[in-house]
Design brief:
disordered C terminus; mainly alpha; Hypothetical protein af1432; 93 residues; 58% helix
């Protein structure tokens, strides 16, 4: 779990590269980083912070929950799955 949050930030930044927010055209990665910042005021749990930064990766990029689970662990993938709009299943390929 060493550097879990940092790895999640890099992964999210790469996955969201070039994407912008619909509202103001700001870099999309700012939204997941803001979520992680808000979460950091409530917890220092690195898995929760990682899930916060990754929460839109499955919905908005080619990332899969399987990939999230392999890279960041089952708990992070479960947290991401619980927050996706489409409620993706961990059984997807």
């Amino acid at each position: 779990m060493h550097f879990l949050f940092e790895r999640a930030v890099i992964y999210a930044a790469v996955r969201h590269k070039g994407k912008t927010r619909k509202i103001d055209k700001s870099p999309y990665i700012l939204h997941p980083m803001e979520v992680a910042q808000i979460l950091s005021t409530m917890t220092d749990d690195k898995e929760i912070l990682a899930a916060g930064v990754l929460h839109d990766a499955v919905e908005d990029t080619s990332a899969t929950l399987t990939d999230i689970r392999v890279r960041f662990g089952k708990r992070v993938a479960d947290l991401v799955a619980s927050e996706t709009e489409n409620k993706y299943s961990l059984s997807e390929s």
